[in-house]
């Protein structure tokens, strides 16, 4: 049972998946900072100072006007946080675009690696194996 588990863990797919998850978690922090600290403020500036992350609608409960999303949640009100959803959509689009660019770059590298080197000199053209065998046959006949 332990040997089977070791074989399972040692397979390349499992290790690749683990590395992908770790890199993905680190990448998520970078993208969250990119969206929250760079892109959302620019979008807010273009839209007149709108901050998506604090946009919400109170569905039930009493919430004083003008408080932030976290304070509304702490007040126990049922809220519809559509601004957080907009931010999540922006995060998704950015992540999808970056992954697309990475896959495109990897595919380009793979195709470049698979092409034979055009600058490599061809081997000297000599007799083929069949030619050599025919010569040996003819020499033995004599």
Short note summarizing the structure:
The protein is mainly alpha-helical. The chain has helices at 2-10, 12-46, 69-74, 82-114, 129-141; strands at residues 57-60, 78-80.
Instruction: Supply the CATH architecture.
Output: Orthogonal Bundle
Low-confidence stretches: none
CATH superfamily: Large-conductance mechanosensitive channel, MscL, domain 1
The outline comes out as elongated
Q: What number of structural domains do the residues give?
A: 1
Q: Tally the helices: what do you get?
A: 5
What is the overall pLDDT average?
80
CATH C-level class = Mainly Alpha
What distance separates the N and C termini?
69 Å
Please characterize this protein's 3D structure.
The protein is mainly alpha-helical and 142 residues long. The protein has one domain (2-116): Non-ribosomal Peptide Synthetase Peptidyl Carrier Protein, Chain A. The protein has 5 helices and 2 strands. A two-stranded antiparallel sheet has the order 1-2. Helix 2 (12-46) packs across helix 4 (82-114). The radius of gyration is 31 Å and the shape is elongated.
């Amino acid at each position: 049972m332990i040997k089977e588990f070791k074989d399972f863990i040692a397979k390349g797919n499992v290790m690749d998946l683990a590395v992908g998850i770790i890199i993905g978690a680190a990448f998520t922090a970078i993208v969250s900072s990119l969206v929250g600290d760079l892109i959302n403020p620019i979008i807010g500036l273009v839209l007149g100072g709108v901050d998506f992350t604090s946009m919400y609608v109170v569905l039930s409960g009493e919430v004083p006007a003008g408080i932030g999303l976290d304070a509304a949640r702490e007040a126990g009100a049922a809220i519809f946080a559509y601004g957080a959803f907009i931010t999540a959509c922006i995060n998704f689009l950015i992540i999808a675009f970056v992954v697309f660019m990475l896959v495109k770059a990897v595919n380009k590298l793979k195709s470049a690696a698979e092409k034979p080197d055009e600058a490599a000199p061809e081997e000297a053209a000599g007799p083929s194996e069949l030619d050599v065998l025919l010569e040996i046959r003819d020499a033995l006949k004599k």
